[in-house]
C-alpha cells in the first residue's frame, strides 16, 4: 500500500505495475482513510478515486514551459553545462529543473524523462 501526497499519474501507473493493493492520498478524510487501510489489510485493492479518474483523462503535460526548455535541451545528450549555456541558466538551476522534471514524471534519469515526454508527445 502507498500513502502519499502525490496524485501524479506517473507515480500511480508505476504503483499499479508494481501490483500494490492500495494507493491512497493523505488529504482524504481521516475516517475514510482508516476504513480504506483496514479494507486493504483485509485483502481488497483500493485506489484513490482521484487517481483512477486521472487515468482516463488526457495526458496533460505537468512540466512548466521552462522545464520543457531544459528537457528539450537535454534531448541530444548535452551536459548540464551545455544545457545551462543554451537556456541562459546557471548549472545549479539546470540541476534543480532536472530534479523537478524527474519528480514530476517519476523518472530516474534524463533518458527516462525524455522517453516519457516523447511517449506522451510533449517532445
Give an overview of the whole structure.
The structure is a single chain. It is elongated and about 55 Å long. Helix 4 (65-74) crosses helix 5, helix 4 (65-74) crosses helix 6 and helix 6 (91-105) crosses helix 7. The protein has 123 residues and is mainly alpha-helical. The model has no long low-confidence stretch (mean pLDDT 89). The chain contains 7 helices and 3 strands. The protein starts with a strand and ends with a helix. The chain is 58% helix and 7% strand.
Descriptive terms for the model:
elongated, three-stranded parallel β-sheet, 123 residues, mainly alpha, 3 strands
* Rg value: 17 Å
Low-confidence stretches: none
Q: Order of SSEs, N→C?
A: EHEHEHHHHH
Shape, per Cα inertia axes: elongated
Largest sheet: 3 strands, parallel
Amino acid at each position: 500500500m502507498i500513502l502519499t501526497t502525490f496524485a501524479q499519474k506517473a507515480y500511480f501507473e508505476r504503483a499499479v505495475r508494481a501490483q500494490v493493493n492500495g494507493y491512497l492520498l493523505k488529504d482524504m478524510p481521516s475516517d475514510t482513510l482508516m476504513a480504506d487501510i483496514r479494507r486493504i489489510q483485509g485483502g481488497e485493492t483500493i485506489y484513490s478515486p482521484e487517481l483512477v479518474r486521472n487515468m482516463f483523462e488526457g495526458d496533460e503535460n505537468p512540466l512548466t514551459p521552462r522545464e520543457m526548455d531544459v528537457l528539450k535541451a537535454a534531448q541530444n545528450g548535452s551536459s548540464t553545462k551545455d544545457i545551462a549555456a543554451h537556456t541562459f541558466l546557471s548549472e545549479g538551476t539546470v540541476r534543480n529543473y532536472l530534479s523537478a522534471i524527474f519528480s514530476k514524471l517519476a523518472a530516474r534519469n534524463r533518458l527516462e524523462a525524455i522517453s516519457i515526454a516523447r511517449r506522451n508527445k510533449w517532445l
